[in-house]
Design goal:
seven-stranded parallel beta sheet, about 800 residues, single chain, globular, alpha/beta, 23 helices
Length: about 800
């Protein structure tokens, strides 16, 4: 038996043996990917591969999961039959909210899950995604997104878990653990993205220059990736499109090799974000041609080019043959690519599971229950003067606003719905899909214009259980009406006067506002859809003011990829509910929350600025935070009295919670272990969820430190009168930072701990003084507090 077929050997040993048998062309092919535009009928019949391929990218797919699996089986046979050693391909797809093919599981968007503050919920979701993907033969997910989103102009906030590195780290590890499983041969390789600092760019623009220094890069933006590598065994990483320190990240050895592999200990595969390598020639202008670009990226540590072999092809073969590139670089990346395939067990079972398994995984009712639970947990009440919950089912309700009777507004980009809309509207809206790799006229298949009615009908057909906000409200009230009021984006398409007049006749007005998360010109945010303003799009602010003035008894329900930024709403609305992007069950969860059938327990994963143009977050450095930033006696912005409308971690409940019986205990180790306990009591008359948050502060530092750091959190459910004890445990190296000499240290001095309901709550404070500064082994430091 050949060693590469010997299951008793390690994946790396098997990969090394197979590598030694491959020609240069065969090795280069393992570094390439081919895009399969699956919505094109019978696309698998037109795919041709020579000498194997590393990966196949599938966006969209067949309506019937069994047909989708049959397509993947045929594609895999095509790849394996082209290879002397029958090397299978890794089939990848997007899976942020579930696999992006028809009739697959759909969970709320990541930003919604961030509001849940419930890692276990996310782990269960990852496990369900894993089972569905494995069933049809897809074995790598281009998920999760570990970017830390702090600029509300940036269009991809919905893909993130929020703006705090600890929250993102915990959520990411939970997702990856569920997705990859404990046995990789039945798992899906997670791909953490976008490495690194992709979300903090000039002007909040997608793909623009990353505005980060070396220290914040490592201490903050690398933290979720480090957690995923060290705590969750991350198998794959995707590069950022951006540049840092004058280099494209996909061609930066300092980022992809020295930092990612050297400092963070990553041993897996680095795949390119779509068409990243081309950007060295077409955008960055740092490469003369694609061969030059391929050499730069491969030597920097970019292993696999996606979605098509634009540069990682004959260019690399010729570069080696001409002496422009050492073959050892090809070998290094090929070894990683092959090792991943052996880890996933593809040489033993490269195909989808049997029809019984497919039927089981795609008819599992627990998946739907999980999605509904996630939508309920995401509901975040940020203002309430007592109008909620609405008890009287006989009141006259007017739902007004462009998102109130529209399902698409509650769906996010990286879902099967968002992907198919992009394919219908414009094949070139997403990088890589404009290339007709299957030899077909994709524009003739998909057209090039908006199809809102078609997409709305698609959602109704695929997800008959879905309800718009108005539909769900209308099912619960005797008297309910709906008016659109204005278009979600087109500021010329308005019916504001009619909406304001109708509002006068209602007992309660529910104003539904938000955006459309997707691709292209018809969206208000999404990939490549960044905005100069963080406020409401189109004429929605005008609608809000007109209707709110006509009837002051109004509630705002906001559904979007980011929180509501409206000083008028926070000054005048009686209640504000953030519904985020909860997809299938968004309308149902919102209606349940308005009536008290669901007690909101979500918390803000983003700080909400009081006005447009405000940039603030709870993790800012001392002297940069709005409460401590003083210039000639002024605090904050000259033209704005308030800065933060609601802080990170904020959220209201129909129950009430009190904290007491706190206790702090510290070990006597050189790097002490810390245990902090607190009793939480529900003093309300209904059951509810609380999120207990622990923040820490290094009071005096040799380097400027954050105002506060989230150390840990725990979501708990409490019945009326019930008391639960929450215990946080961690080592003091959780506060470690880079000294002036670039060493990780935990510094002597005073530390404060806040058991809090949000990031600005300092009512319950415990203190400790660390007697001696300690050098820290960053590879084993605490990244968050464990909670019992």
């Amino acid at each position: 038996m050949e060693n590469y077929l010997n299951k008793a050997l390690s994946p790396k040993e098997r990969a090394a043996d197979l590598l030694s048998k491959l020609t240069l062309k065969e090795k280069v092919n393992q570094l390439a990917c081919q895009m399969i535009p699956a919505p094109i009928p019978e696309v698998e019949e037109h795919v041709s591969v020579t000498d194997g391929i590393g990966q196949l990218a599938i966006m969209g797919g067949k309506e019937d999961p069994r047909q989708h699996a049959a397509m993947i089986r045929k594609l895999q046979d095509t790849v394996m039959n082209s290879s002397r050693f029958r090397i299978p391909a890794v089939i990848h797809c997007e899976a942020l909210s579930g696999p992006v093919f028809p009739n697959a599981l759909t969970y709320p968007a990541s930003i919604s899950l961030g509001a849940s503050f419930d890692p276990e919920l996310v782990r269960e979701m990852g496990d369900k995604i894993r089972r569905q993907m494995v069933a049809v033969g897809a074995r790598q997910a281009l998920s999760p997104v570990l970017d830390i989103s702090r600029d509300l102009r940036w269009g991809r906030i919905n893909e993130t878990y929020g703006n705090d590195p600890t929250l993102v780290s915990e959520m990411a590890c939970a997702f990856i653990t569920g997705l990859q499983g404990t046995d990789y041969t039945n798992g899906v390789a997670a791909t953490a993205k976008h490495f690194l600092g992709y979300s903090l760019t000039e002007g909040g623009l997608n793909m623009a220059k990353t505005m980060l220094g070396e220290r914040e890069t490592r201490e903050v933006y690398a933290k979720p990736f480090e957690a995923a590598i060290r705590n969750a065994g991350l198998l794959s990483v995707m590069n950022s499109y951006a540049e840092m320190e004058g280099k494209p990240i996909c061609a930066s050895k300092e980022i992809l090799d020295d930092l990612l592999r050297g400092e963070l200990g990553f041993e897996g595969v680095v795949v390119s974000d779509y068409m990243s390598v081309d950007r060295l020639v077409n955008n960055f202008h740092v490469a003369e041609n694609l061969q030059d670009a391929a050499i730069q990226c491969l030597t920097a540590g970019l292993d696999v080019e996606c979605p098509n072999p634009s540069a990682y092809n004959q260019n690399l073969v010729e570069a080696v043959e001409k002496g422009l590139l050492a073959e050892s670089y090809v070998d290094r990346s090929c070894l990683r690519s092959l090792e991943l395939k052996f880890k996933l067990g593809l040489f033993e079972n490269p195909y989808p599971r049997d029809e019984e398994a497919i039927t089981r995984e795609y008819s599992d009712e627990s998946q739907e229950k999980g999605s509904l639970k996630a939508a309920r947990e995401a509901m975040t009440l940020t203002k309430n003067d007592g109008i909620l919950p609405i008890q009287d089912r006989n009141v006259k309700i007017l739902v007004v606003g462009p998102t109130g009777n529209n399902l698409r507004s509650m769906w996010s980009t990286y879902t099967s719905v968002g992907m198919e809309e992009m394919l219908y509207n414009n094949m070139e809206a997403m990088a890589g899909l404009g290339d007709s790799s299957a030899g077909m006229d994709t524009d003739a298949v998909f057209g090039g214009e908006d199809h809102p009615d078609m997409i709305e009908a698609l959602i109704h057909r695929r997800y008959p259980q879905a309800r718009t906000i108005f539909q769900a409200v209308n099912e619960r009230f005797v008297h309910a009406e709906y008016l659109m009021g204005c278009d979600y984006k087109n500021s010329e398409k308005t019916y504001i006067e009619a909406a304001a007049e109708a509002a006068k006749n209602a007992d309660i007005v529910i104003i539904t506002v938000g955006g459309k998360n997707g691709y292209g010109a018809y969206s208000t945010n999404g990939e490549g859809v960044d905005t100069a303003s963080a406020g409401l799009p189109g004429a929605q602010e005008r609608l809000l003011r007109a209707v709110g003035t006509a009837n002051p008894n109004f509630i705002v329900v906001h559904t979007d990829a980011k929180p509501l930024v409206s000083s008028f709403a926070y000054q005048n609305a009686r209640a504000i509910l953030e519904g985020w992007l909860c997809c299938t069950y968004g309308g149902e969860a919102i209606a349940e929350t308005l009536l008290g059938e669901n007690n909101p327990g979500g918390r803000l994963q983003q700080d909400i600025p009081y006005g447009d143009g405000v940039y603030t977050y709870h993790y800012q450095h001392n002297a940069s935070y709005y409460k401590s930033l003083q210039s000639l006696g002024a605090v904050g912005y000259n033209d704005l009295k308030e800065v933060v409308a609601r802080p990170f971690g904020y959220g209201l409940s129909y129950a009430g919670f009190e904290y007491g019986n706190t206790e702090l205990s510290i070990s006597e180790d050189a790097v002490p272990s810390v245990k902090i306990r607190v009793d939480v009591k529900n003093v309300g008359n209904v059951a509810g969820d609380d999120v207990v948050q622990l923040y820490g502060k290094d009071v005096i530092g040799s380097m400027i430190r954050p105002v506060r750091e989230l150390l840990g959190f725990k979501r708990i459910h409490l019945l009326p009168g019930e008391v639960k004890t929450v215990v946080f445990e961690f080592k003091m190296d959780i506060f470690a930072f880079l000294s002036a000499g670039k060493e990780w240290i935990c510094e002597a001095g005073e530390y404060k701990f806040f058991l809090a309901k949000h990031s600005e709550d300092e009512s319950l404070c415990l203190t400790y003084c660390l007697p001696k500064t300690q050098r820290i082994d960053a590879s084993v430091r605490s990244l968050w507090a464990e909670v019992q």
